[in-house]
Amino acid sequence: MEPRGTYSTRTVSWLCRNVALLPPRELSRWRNLSLAAWSSVSAASVHSVLELEAEPMLEYVRRESERTGRRITMVHFVGKALALALRRFPDLNCLIRLGRLYPRRDVDIFFPVALDSRGEDLSGAVLRKVDESSLADVADELTGAAYALRKHGEGAWTFKGQGPFARIASRLLMRAGGFVLYTLNLWSPILGFPRDSFGSAAVTDISKFGAKYAFPPLLPVARLPLLVGLGGIVDGGVWENEDWRRQKRLRLSIVFDHRVADGVYMSRLCRHLTKIVEHPETYMDPSAAES
Prior knowledge:
Elements: E1 16-17, H1 29-37, H2 41-44, E2 45-53, H3 55-68, H4 74-88, E3 94-97, E4 100-103, E5 109-114, E6 122-127, H5 135-152, H6 164-183, E7 186-187, E8 201-205, E9 226-240, E10 243-257, H7 263-278, H8 280-283
Parallel strand pairs: 5-8, 8-9
Antiparallel strand pairs: 1-7, 2-10, 3-4, 5-6, 9-10
């Protein structure tokens, strides 16, 4: 099953653009300074934790699973919610190339995929235009993409061989591939890499490792400005009118590239993401993304 909206090598020319981009953004003096100050995503990464009320999301996921007959999970929900938040705040849906910020035309979300039952061999799949997809579509597409990865290795950046020389060769290939695909924004089947295989942002489930929160690094070759990690559901509560109300809480680990956005802008995106998670009936419809 091929995920809906993916690029197919059968329908593109031998050389074309890797990512659909809009004209570069006009930058503030602070944003220009940020791009000049940090030369790598590892140096510019900012980490934060977002703790949200989980019960409305859990109930919404349960009802949608029953209504559609799909196995919808928190990962699907948060991936869709993040896509809607990026559509609401498109300045974070950008690619750094040639010292400038180029907005992406679409909102595509990357999901890590375990290739074996032990979860030791990882790859990933990118779903296109997630902000325009239903939760059932997201579940179907991710299931199909994971099947293709495990069966055929489709969409994976894989390098065969082991040992120091193989690792050096892999590092050089990744750097060369990142330069051609994202700096030059060119793609061809003869390159041997999938087309735009990382998308706008990544969502990963860290709760399956027993972690309440963690901060996975942003992969330099992916040029991703944002990663959201799902921690487990924990028992907690809030004070309301001098009374303690118990509730289930979801912890999200946020990692973002300071060259693309600062804390003020990220706080706006996180507030909107909070609204979607805590009020899914109002915000999960793609048509409500601008409200």
